[in-house]
Amino acid sequence: MSQPSLIERLAILADAAKYDASCASSGTSKRNSKNGTGIGSTEGMGICHAYAPDGRCISLLKILLTNHCVFDCHYCINRKSSNVRRARFTPQEVVDLTLSFYRRNYIEGLFLSSGIVRNSSHTMEQMVEVGRILREEHDFRGYIHLKTIPEADSELVRQAGLWADRVSINVELPTKAGLTKLAPDKSEAVIEGAMADVKEAIAENKDARKHFRSAPKFAPAGQSTQMIVGADAASDADIVGKASALYGQFRLRRVYYSAFSPIPDASSVLPLKRPPLIREHRLYQSDWLMRFYGFAPQEVQAAAGADGMLPLDIDPKLAWALKFRESFPVDVNRAPREMLLRVPGLGTKVVGAILASRRHRTLRLEDVAKLTVSVAKLRPFIVTADWRPVLLTDRADLRTLITPQRSEQLELFAA
């Protein structure tokens, strides 16, 4: 059987990488080649698919080193028992592709993951070599994200952090039971041990750089992880609890959520259809509440129903507000920032604008309306100089009144 061409292998391995959501490129140190040395930049604009927190668009070549794998994770299209076309790059081929795409202004960086070929350490060694060649031999200053392998030798994972802006280790599933059932070759203890090693290396590097400016940077954009949603029986409350624990234990930059997608020749232990994509969106919103709005994980979990699932028709903050109406209404002219952030419909920027405005004037309802997309969602939860909701906040049908009406998708061939 003939070896696939480079373009054919690129098509196979780029498509195989699409299931990994953790490819953002934010938080790294700024580098460029404006002084005439090196190649690449972490600051520019291009043809892009990832967004930094400041709104910059970052394009990444997102591929696998190989989709061969000795593991047999039930949910993975590249598992050992899967009947998919296999392909493999050498480290030099990945380097050549990265530089070639960069010079054509297609990309600004590389996101590299891999199946496990031969063994974990061998595969990790090849991925580290990609980073080394780019940085040492070509002085590449663009963004590099390496998906590290927890079963690999810890020294190899540490080497990855010296070449990459960000490293990540997927926890895969939110519960130990789910991991044992669907990924029998993987271990929660091994995964979390590797994440702890990366956390320690990042901390040691920060301390070293305080004393020695010449100390090399280690994963300046930190580490992240990804959880698959809907492949096992874990509820949203389970996922929120796991994410909170990961942030606390390993100081992660991000936890990414990826809705399970049915795959060809799937195992009978997997669901027959994918969860609604809005569930993934609600989990990202709950993640935002914990990271930027001051919500404790227990409060986000309290917004879920008796089955532990977050409502799909309303966002988690509104669900929490409807359950804990005794916290409302909030006086926008007097309430502290922490309480304003709990008002449905008020984001961090709007709260900042309210705090700045009320120093100079007493806010009326129309003033708040100018700062928001729709004041209708706010009215039951706020007090202004000329507005008080009275009994509106306690109405039994309040959820119906303020829940956005969902439009049904028309069927193209409906009778």
Give a quick precis of the structure:
With 415 residues, this protein is α/β, with parallel strands linked by helices.
Low-confidence stretches: 42-48, 408-415
Structural class: alpha/beta
The fraction of residues in strands falls at 5-15%
CATH architecture of the largest domain: Alpha-Beta Barrel
Shape: globular
Radius of gyration: 24 Å
Query: Helix segment count?
Result: 14
The residue-averaged pLDDT reads 88
Tell me the span between the first and last alpha carbons: 49 Å
Name of the CATH class of the largest domain: Alpha Beta
Please indicate the count of domains. Answer: 2
CATH topology descriptor of the largest domain: TIM Barrel
Largest sheet: 6 strands, parallel
| Spatial arrangement of strands, main beta sheet | 3-4-5-6-7-8
String of helices and strands: HEEEHEHEHEHHEHEHHHEHHHEH
Give the fraction of residues assigned to helices: 25-40%
Number of strands: 10
